[in-house]
Amino acid sequence: MAKSKSKTGNYILLPVTETQTTADTNPKVKNFLTAVLEPAVSREAVSLKTRGPEKSAKKIPVKVIDSIQDNGAKLVQLSQEELADFRFSYPGLRIIKEKFYKKAQVYRESIQQKAKKTKTTKKLDLTVTDTDGNPVAGIYIVAFTDFESRTGDSGNTNAKGKLSLTLASKNIERIYVYPEHTYWGYYKTKFSATSLSIKLQKIDPGYTDSLRHFYDTPQWPKITQKLRVGIIDTGVGPHKDLVVSGGLNCVANEDPTDFKDNGEGHGTHVAGIVSAYGGVYGLAAGVEIYSYRVFPKEADASNFYIMKALAQAIQDECDIINMSLGESETDEGISSYIKQAYNAGILCFCANGNDDRGTVSFPANYSLSVAVSAMGRKNTFPKNTVQTGIVKSPYGTDKANFIADFSNIGAETDLTAPGVGIISTFPDDLYAIMDGTSMACPAAVGMAARLLAGNPEIMALPRASARADEMLKYLSTKIQSLGFGANYEGKGMLLEDK
Amino acid sequence: MANYILQYKGSGMPDPQVVKETLHICGVSIIDGSLLPHAALLDVSDGELENVRCKFEADWSLTPEKKYKVPDTKKRTKE
To answer: Which residues form the Peptidase S8/S53 domain (chain A) (predicted)?
Structure first.
């Protein structure tokens, strides 16, 4: 291969729609894969001419490392600097950077291996109680001696509220305490100890969290117009503050009529942000909630279940769909149903993802989704709670506002909404604090529903893409920038007219 | 054996009976046929995969089932 000064990379070349060329593939692409690249596999680099005026034409050296089929994927090596030239000169191909995957390891095993390697001997004995001194069981705690490398130990408290962690040192860089419900969490940094007693503060449902700072939901009237919101999640309820009007359990081999929460509480928390009324107040109390359960208990959701949920939400004539879920890789099946929803006049709001300022997840990054990042506000959570560790720049025009440290960001972001220290419903009439773009997404959905309920002309439009277009256009007039910058907040936050 | 999603990419409505018969001929079992005739969740062995692709041709896609986790923001240790 001709020597190049710039770095080379390996890329996978694929036809646009399939893994192999088909009858619909551009004949030039087919010829390029089968007649130009295929014969060059494992040989010296081929020299490919760039497109453009003859004078400026140059040659791109490309080494074909491997091929899956004659008319299928090719693994090639070329200069990163020449990648753009290649892309414009040889269109009709998907160009995917070669990635390497680690062997999946069970979390507990990896911690044990780490413990052996570092010969950890220090113990940190923890006791967790409520403010009355009663032990609190089942609380997940993680302590780091080196946060950067994520070195530490974790576990759950026992019936006596006790947990012993094995660490490399007694110098703790950070400790996070995550109750599932009922209590605020706990966070402490840079201390040295072999034992620690932690008192958890109970949630007051009337506390002004970041959501209620921006939206005075306890004072808002119930929505009386008919508007239906679909929640694709772990299921919803039961909870005294929530009414679930319909739905479907989309998980294979489970009762289709059981669309209450699978016990993890995520979907119930999301639904409460939209429509709770009683102990806590959501943004759009009065709208119909439809629950589409796609998560089996303590297991992952199949993309097929999500497709099924979208199909059912379309059939049920939802107006807005909340998808507080995501993964890094795109999925054509889910995209096609989001497109179908849009063409049926339904908007899909999706969480940006929680990968510590990573790129916007799928399906939020799909062009027809409304992608929502998470922001927070200082002094809307008690001191020493987990939320104090989430504060990170950029700060807004109002310096108390910040984009959550966990929130994914990027050009696909459409909106931001409160997603730090949010109080909402948890199954069996409990309340919980949760953080995430999962919480910001229903905050945006709830506000969108409230605003759209005030515009019956748009909601009465025939169920087609023009309806979704008009819904978006109307909502865009209700968005205000908080000064974070488009990469972090998109156009800004949905707010009431002042 | 692995789960795959068969999805119709063409226009119009595919014939559900033809879809089911074709799957039967391929010896593939349907795990969830609630979205038929547009999509189905299938149990496909490595040996059957190419056969299913060939039988359904260009208007159909056959992609592996993917999994989505319940999102959270808990910090975790790692290797």
So the answer is: 226-461
Nearest by CB: B67 against A300, A311, A404: A300
Q: Angle A332-343/A465-476 helices, nearest 10 degrees?
A: 90
B71 contacts in A (CB within 8 Å)?
Answer: 266, 324-326, 351, 353-354, 436-438
Q: Please indicate, yes or no, whether residues A77 and A25 belong to a single structural domain of this protein.
A: yes
Judge whether A353 lies within some domain: yes
For the CA atoms of A463, A465, A470, A471, what is the dihedral angle to 10 degrees?
Answer: 70
Parallel, antiparallel or unpaired: strands A320-323 and A288-293: unpaired
% of chain A exceeding 90 in pLDDT: 73
Are A441 and A396 members of one domain? yes
| Predicted confidence (pLDDT) per residue in A130-176, tens digit | 999 999 999 999 999 999 999 999 999 999 999 999 999 999 999 99
Q: Is A184 in the same domain as A329? A: no
pLDDT in tens, A296-328: 988 999 999 999 999 999 999 999 999 999 999
Is residue A205 assigned to a domain? Answer: no
- Residues of A belonging to the active site: 233, 266, 438
The enclosing domain of A217 has a CATH number of 3.40.50.200
pLDDT of residue A354 exceeding 90: yes
pLDDT digits (tens, 9 = 90+) for A388-437: 999 999 999 999 999 999 999 999 999 999 999 999 999 999 999 999 99
The helix (run of H) or strand (run of E) holding residue A213 is helix A210-214
The parent domain of residue A78 ranges over 8-98
**Interface contact flag, A304 B63, Cβ < 8 Å:** no
CB-based contact, A339 to chain B, within 8 Å: no
For residue A1, is it within any domain? Answer: no
Give the CB-side neighbour count of residue A2, counting CA atoms within 13 A. Answer: 10
Residue B77 to residue A406, Cβ atoms within 8 A: no
In-domain check, residue A105: no
Tens-digit pLDDT profile for residues A163-208:
999 999 999 999 999 999 999 999 999 999 999 999 999 999 999 9
A38 band by pLDDT with thresholds 50, 70 and 90: confident
Six-digit token pair at A311? 């199909």
What's the pLDDT score for residue A214? Answer: 98
Q: Note whether A89 and A127 are same-domain residues.
A: no
User: For residues A446 and A284, is the Cβ–Cβ distance under 8 A?
Assistant: yes
Count chain A–chain B contacts defined by CB atoms under 8 A: 119
Cβ distance of A307 and B5 shorter than 8 Å: yes
- How many domains would you assign to chain A? 3
The answer to whether A333 faces chain B, any CB pair under 8 Å, is: yes
For residues A324 and A462, state if they share a domain. yes
CATH number for A146? 2.60.40.1120
For residue A49, the distance in angstroms to the closest alpha carbon of chain B comes to 31
Q: Which of A170, A200, A230 finishes a domain? A: A200
Maximum CA extent, chain B: 51
Sheet-wide strand order for A122-130: A162-167, A122-130, A195-200
If asked whether residues A50 and A19 sit together in one domain, one would say yes
Tell me which of A74, A98, A122 is where a domain ends.
Answer: A98
Residue B62 distance to chain A (closest CA, Å): 10
Q: Which among A245, A242, A323 is positioned nearest to A291, based on CA atoms?
A: A245
How much is the pLDDT for A109?
Answer: 37
Interval A215-242 mean pLDDT: 98
